[in-house]
Amino acid sequence: MKRGKLIVYTGYSGVGKGTIMKKLLATDDSVRLSVSCTTRSPREGEVDGVHYYFISKEQFEEIIREDGFLEYATYCDNYYGTPAKAVDDMLEKGLNVFLEIEVQGGMQIMKKRPDCVSIFIVPPSLEELERRLRDRGTEDEETILKRLSAVEEEKNFVKYYTYTVLNDDVDRAAKEILEIIHNS
Hints:
The chain is of the alpha/beta class. Helices cover about 40% and strands about 20% of the residues. It has 7 helices and 9 strands.
């Protein structure tokens, strides 16, 4: 059986990564999304073990000590990390595994696993990105401003990704991503 591809899937907060991912998962049976661990609180509607594994800071730090993450990072005062064993098990089954992670984690994965496919999702404009963040209604003003200020730093990392995909239309962006993973 052919080993699956590891896909580093990054984009600014609010750019629509989750919406595109829903489309990819519904369209292609070979696509899987790695479930990351985080120390942040669940948002309304998020389910432990489906969207994230919501764990304590102490639990997270124990997994770090055991070298159990492919990558981990701190973002907006919370830990996020990708459990290594679960990802490797899926790749061995021939599945294409997406790691929906921020730039720090993306850079770690690209260094550790240079055979990965790296994709950065960008918005049509920063004004549109701010509108999307505000419209989803999941964060307070302070968090929205923190996420928008993170864009300034994250912009510097786009050049390290092999592919940049514009999310101006979810169906088009999903189709472009599927072409990338099946032709790379």
